[in-house]
Amino acid sequence: MMKVKSVDAGVGAMNRRKILQAAEKCFAQFGFKGTAVQKIADEAGLPKTNVLYYFKTKQELYVAVLEETLSLWNSRFDKATVEDDPAEVLANYIAEKMEVSRTHPMASKIFAMEIINGAQNLSGYFDEEHALWMKGRLAVIDAWVNAGKLPPIEGEYLLYTIWASTQHYADFSAQITRLRGKKMTKADFEDATRQVVKLVLGGCGLSVPESFEV
After folding, report:
1. Long-range Cβ contact pairs of 42-45 (< 8 A, separation 24 or more)
2. pLDDT tens readout for residues 109-134
3. What are phi and psi of 36, to 5 degrees?
4. Are 102 and 169 in contact (CB under 8 A)?
5. Which of 133, 146, 144, 134 is closest to 89 using CA atoms?
6. What angle do CA 208, 74, 190 make, to 5 degrees?
7. pTM for the model
8. What are the counts of helices (DSSP H) followed by strands (DSSP E) for the chain?
9. Which residues contact residue 105 at a Cβ distance below 8 angstroms, ignoring those fewer than 6 apart?
């Protein structure tokens, strides 16, 4: 009996993953209004009833995709403390966000469109959990400043700069491709990561750690 439950749970997790991946693709291509549940079901290769079994409404599924995007951006920075080296933490944070832009560009684009449209579907999760995360990270940056590990800087603007610099490679990939005449490769992303790290850390009066590798 326990074995059957285990198999059922595995199938459920697999179906949920397929639905979220299909929804991410559809929302990125057609937006929230232009995406029907049936379209997501067709993309996932599942009956519409299966999609609605795991997610009761299209909005519930859309919010799940948005929350998953925020979870993708989780990094070692989440657990950083005043005892850590800010250069190492920030360099790795930038590298991790650049990697997400490379591997999950559609998720980043959906999030960007939601923010541009007023973030109405993020009100609960975003205003509570993500705001709490932001408050905690600003406290760490302020602690680094007070400990003399960083020059006097506003942590809020530092984070905005990092987000803008890293998410740009996903959200504006079409612009980058048109200007370069070709899509960025993994090697191009690695080079871009090194440059963004150098620019951000240099602006903070920090040197790139010798241990840092992309």
Report:
1. 44/15, 44/18, 44/19, 45/18
2. 999 998 888 888 876 766 778 888 99
3. -100, 155
4. yes
5. 144
6. 40
7. 0.85
8. 11, 0
9. 169, 170, 171, 173
